[in-house]
């Protein structure tokens, strides 16, 4: 079942320390997102460090230097055991400004950034800790009044500021939902229209594994114009969002509640079918699990607002028209990981420091 009524954490978060707070600097001194692609460079860097650790020079080190080396080894061990972050690259291809909001689930490590402005054509990289769960959405038609109160016509989180700080998205809003490093070490993700729709959005895994189910999902079409009149939200005479039937009518048969709280009793309605026919990979109602939940292992994710249907890897109305990407990079990444893990195993299993010879073919 797709649970769309969450118990979310209402912790207040600190603001980010700057636009490059989640970027990593490599040797060319240009900022790079801390993605799995760049981890290849880091792994090679640490491999060279291990070559030094295995040299006789270590015997002559002062105790403090040996302690520093041990600390470095522990850092690498943490890196190799999966304690690194996942990255969300959030892209705005809309012709207007979008204000992304982020909410962490209850019991999940909060993020340092919970909301920001994203101008048309801009992108931002957000680092997400291991085992994180939460949701991300786009707010539209936002403004600040004379008293300094910030609010949005769609997707407002009620915080009165750009940062959502524990506030949830007011429906209707298109939601990207994640549970990272869940059962079997897999990431579970979906794009949900259960709480309605306010803008096109897709989620695309980058560099992950998981076969056909590790692929893009979302909704690439504009549903605000064709939205049924009884569901349509308007502003200045134009459709700006499309409510769910549950929100519009508060009827248990649409909300999958009360006597309709099981998959056998809560069935798709004509309203949920409107969403499903346009966006076949997105959740359209609470029990729409079979075609709407996706899984990956060791992936980063690109979340795009207003993707172009002609260039997107997910096609409207065709649930099978999805292309995967990053397979070659993923294989190279896994081979490099295997090499460095071998070096680590050799290091921790050796009682004396000596030479180490390793032939590698990437």
Automatic annotation (TrEMBL):
Which parts of the chain span the membrane according to its record? 40-59, 71-91, 336-360
Q: Which keywords does this Swiss-Prot/TrEMBL entry list?
A: Membrane, Transmembrane, Transmembrane helix
Q: Which InterPro entries match?
A: Osmotin/thaumatin-like_sf, Thaumatin
Q: Which SMART domains match?
A: THN
Q: Does the keyword Heme apply?
A: no
**Cited Pfam families:** Thaumatin (PF00314)
- Which family is annotated? Belongs to the thaumatin family.
* Name this polypeptide is given: Thaumatin-like protein
Provide the species name.
Vigna angularis var. angularis
Gene name for this UniProt entry: Vigan.10G152000
């Amino acid at each position: 079942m797709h649970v769309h009524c969450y118990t979310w954490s209402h912790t207040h978060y600190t603001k980010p320390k700057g636009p490059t707070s989640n970027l990593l600097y490599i040797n060319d001194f240009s900022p790079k997102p801390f993605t799995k692609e760049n981890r290849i460079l880091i792994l090679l860097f640490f491999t060279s460090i291990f070559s030094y650790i295995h040299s006789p020079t270590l015997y002559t080190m002062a105790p403090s230097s040996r302690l520093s080396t041990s600390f470095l080894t522990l850092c690498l061990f943490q890196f190799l055991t999966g304690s690194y972050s996942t990255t969300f690259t959030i892209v705005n291809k809309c012709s207007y400004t979008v204000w992304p909001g982020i909410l962490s689930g209850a019991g999940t490590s909060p993020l340092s950034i919970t909301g920001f402005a994203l101008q048309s054509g801009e992108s931002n990289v957000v680092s997400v800790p291991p085992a994180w769960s939460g949701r991300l959405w786009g707010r539209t038609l936002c403004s600040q009044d004379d008293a300094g109160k910030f609010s949005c016509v769609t997707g407002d989180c009620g915080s009165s500021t750009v940062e959502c700080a524990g506030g949830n998205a007011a429906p209707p809003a298109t939601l990207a939902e994640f549970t990272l490093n869940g059962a079997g070490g897999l990431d579970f993700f979906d794009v949900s229209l259960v709480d309605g729709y306010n803008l096109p959005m897709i989620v695309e895994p980058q560099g992950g594994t998981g076969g056909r189910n590790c692929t893009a999902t979302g909704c690439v079409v504009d549903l605000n114009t064709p939205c049924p009149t009884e569901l349509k939200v308007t502003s200045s005479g134009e459709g700006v969002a499309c409510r769910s039937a549950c929100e519009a009518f508060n009827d248990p048969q649409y909300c999958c509640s009360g006597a309709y709280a099981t998959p056998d009793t809560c069935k798709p309605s004509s309203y949920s079918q409107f969403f499903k026919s346009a966006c076949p990979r997105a959740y359209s109602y609470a029990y729409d699990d079979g075609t709407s939940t996706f899984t990956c292992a060791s992936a980063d994710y690109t979340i795009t607002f207003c993707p172009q249907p002609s260039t997107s890897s997910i096609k409207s109305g065709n649930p099978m028209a999805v292309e995967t990407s990053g397979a070659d990079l993923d294989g190279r990444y896994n081979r490099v990981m295997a090499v460095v893990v071998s070096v680590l195993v050799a290091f921790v299993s050796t009682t004396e420091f000596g030479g180490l010879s390793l032939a590698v073919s990437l």
